[in-house]
Amino acid sequence: MAVSTETSSSVIGSSPARTPVWALALKWVAIAAALLLALYVASKLADHGHTLAVVGTAFVAMCVLVIYGTRRAVPMKYLFVGLALLIGLQVWPIVYTAMTAFTNYGQGHLASKEDATAQDIAYSVRQVPGSPTYTLTVAVKDGTSTVAGPLYFLLVDEKGHTFVGDAKGLNQLGKNGLTIDAGKITKAEGYTTLNLLQANKRKDLSSFAVPTDGGGGIKASGFAAAYNGKPTLVWDKKADTITDTTTKQVYVAEGAQWVPQSGKGDALPVGWKENVGLANFRTLFTNSTIRDGFLGIFAWNIAFSVLSVLTTFVLGMLLALLLNDSRIKGRGIYRSLLILPYAIPVFVSALVWASMFNQQFGLINNLTHLNIDWFGSPWAARAAVLITNLWLGFPYMFVVCTGALQSLPGDVMEAAKIDGAGAWRTLRSITTPLLLVAVGPLLIASFAFNFNNFGLIYLLTKGGPFTGGNSQLGSTDLLITYAYRLALGGTNPNYGLAGAVAIIIFIIVGLLSFPGFLRSKALEEVN
Amino acid sequence: MAVIDPPAATGQTAATAAGAARQTSSGGSAFRAVWWRHVLVWIAIAFALFPILFVLSAALNPAGTLSTTSLLPKNVSVNNFDALFSDGARPYLSWYKNSLIIAFVGSAIAVFIGACAAYAFSRLRFRGRRVGLLALLLLQMFPALLAFVGLYITFSNVGEVLPKIGLNTISGLVLAYLGGAMGANVWLLKGYFDTVPRELDEAARVDGASHARIFFTVIMRLVTPILVTVFMISFVGLFGEFLLASIFLTDVNAQTLGVGLYGMTLGNESNSLYGEFAAGSVLAALPIMVLYLVFQRQLVSGLTQGSVK
């Protein structure tokens, strides 16, 4: 007892260990700040009508008060923040991705049936005599792309009132932060206005309309004016049909959009989000245009990971063996130089290698006097990817193998020597097996990492080349780069299908890691 | 018999002589025994260094295009660096600042969250502790970036309500990174925390110190080495992260080095911008390279331990 008291006073000093006033004050200030923040977030959420999220925020605020305001739940005081972030930003996205995989969420299917139908009806408006008119400024939210970002109409009516309209509806717009020139909004805070050239490029502008409360919609006529017209579509909610009053065409709900009952003519442009069960997975494995490409990506993904681990490990191990000889002078410098590729951020290395593989000007073709179109043919691109990854990955394997070699038991080596084993025999029968046992788990971890090596592929080849007129499924695509392209690559995102690919990645990673997880010492060692 | 004997004898003498020679002048013949190892290692070093040499040469190349760049620079100038810093369309310094802020803030918070969790798991006893630890180990296998579809949609919805932490904000990106903060490092940290003798905090408790005081004044001081290691591993990871950064940061002023430099290699200008790009790459690689060379041992051991566990 006496001994331990002494130790403690040497660490924390001899002053009586009572919580100082400033620490208490700081604690309560922090709690108050957290509660105020929660209040602010909740009020913002309430403004947007997210009731469930308000309840969630209130729950988090209560947890903060109970955990940090009382003396109870000591472990939670240390775990709560991390746990909240973990659940909100790692578990929830995974769950949400999984849920999305079973929907048709994506371009043309973004909103609920109610909202989507309101948009369809708004799109159908025709100008009639006496329709209210507006001056129009086409805009997107700041920070979104002028080419693909959601459209906003900044409107001034005949009386000079200002409005902002989007696909969801029309809202008043305060005049603060607006610059109005000759009755037209030219600048608005928070929005990027499109000039004529940019607006001209928006093909969706001609069919875009802002739904209004009266069941009509505001459409653009040209780029500078808009009108609030009368819809030609009528939604009969009981029969769940839509009738076009001008053409008498009747539309029925089918496949999450309104299609003509007669089977002739086009479906209405906006569909809605709904559950589609396993349809996304069926698409990947049975759809004739996607299946072959998808299975090709799948096979390449596995081949890429296996070959990457294999090539980097073999080169790393050979170098480690080469330098594992105390007679070599300057080993420290050699090692530092060999590790250098590992000390460069992957985005730099991948982009530099991409330029070195350039067919016309690249260093590789210049030095070798070859004229290979590295990123034009599938096999050359795959080779380029593997060469680059060898360069990126061998230093890690070299370091790992060097460490493992140095910790190999000396007596076993000695015994081999006494038994008359030559250098080759020792390497084959003793060093390599022992090394593999030591670095085995790291090889599996490296496989799992390379399986999802998004940065390398995306920065080097973007998944390309795309052969056979297929712009979605590339020759060097991994599942994760394919999912990325589906969700975010173009103007037609398909989140549902991307979610399905992500689920497949999860399953594979899980299958790969789970045996290791069960066998890991950690399971028994938790104390 | 007599005819055969002498050669055999001379052979034997020669062998002994050679053995003696090896023993006496070990220095020179040691090199003779391992010279081929030096040659092979130099070939490997050439493979490791030539891309680095190439990008340095491109950065110093006065013409500043990919087509005029060779492995060794013919002329040397700092034109590309000047052009990089005065490029109105590409705010390189903002990218640099953003990358450093994201990596620094993200790592600092991650280390603190991880240390708190490791303290709880190492020192406190509570229900669900074992299950919690194993759940963290399991979750670690599914990094949040694999769920980028869910993250993207979630953050675009969040951005409509709270624009300050939505898409296209640095704070939103840091928040997204922090989702994995607890799981990623807790095992490595807990392992180190377990090596700090329990007698120390027992003693402090006897003296009347609260759990918070023990954590901040006793434990945190003793585990500083592992905190530094975890901070650097996390810093290196966040500095180089590309997937989420490219999804989140579309506005050119908000971008990180990775996203910004990638943008420079796209399009028709990529050849003429190559010198600028190379200069930017060299500068972007500097912080991590310096970290590596200074803290090589800690980083390497931390990385290997982290993945074994």
Topology:
The complex is a heterodimer of chains A (527) and B (309).
Chain A: H1 2-12, H2 21-47, H3 51-69, H4 74-100, H5 113-123, E1 133-141, E2 151-157, E3 162-166, E4 169-172, E5 178-181, E6 184-188, E7 191-193, H6 196-201, E8 209-211, E9 217-221, E10 225-229, E11 233-236, E12 241-244, E13 250-254, E14 257-260, H7 279-286, H8 288-323, H9 331-339, H10 346-356, H11 363-368, H12 378-406, H13 410-418, H14 423-451, H15 454-460, H16 479-489, H17 495-519, H18 522-525
Antiparallel strand pairs in A: 1-2, 1-7, 1-10, 2-3, 3-4, 5-6, 8-9, 9-10, 11-12, 12-13, 13-14
Chain B: H1 5-24, H2 26-60, H3 79-85, H4 92-123, H5 129-139, H6 148-161, H7 170-178, H8 181-195, H9 198-206, H10 211-222, H11 224-240, H12 243-248, H13 257-264, H14 274-308
Provide a descriptive summary of the structure in words.
The complex is a heterodimer of chains A (527) and B (309). Chain A contains 18 helices and 14 strands. With 527 residues, chain A is of the alpha+beta class. Chain A has three domains: 20-100, Methane Monooxygenase Hydroxylase, Chain G, domain 1, CATH 1.20.58; 113-260, no CATH class; 286-521, MetI-like (MetI-like fold, Orthogonal Bundle). In chain A, a hairpin with a 4-residue loop joins strand 2 and strand 3. In chain A, 35% of the residues are buried. Chain B is mainly alpha-helical and 309 residues long. Chain B folds into two domains: 27-77, no CATH class; 85-308, MetI-like fold (Orthogonal Bundle), CATH 1.10.3720. Chain B has 14 helices and no strands. In chain B, helix 2 packs across helix 14 (274-308) and helix 4 packs across helix 8. The longest helix of chain B is centred in the N-terminal third of the chain and has 35 residues, at 26-60. Chain B starts with a helix and ends with a helix. Mean pLDDT of chain B is 82; it is low at 1-25. Classes of the chains: A alpha+beta (527), B mainly alpha (309). At the A-B interface, helix 1, helix 2, helix 4, helix 8 and helix 9 of A face helix 2, helix 4, helix 5, helix 6 and helix 7 of B.
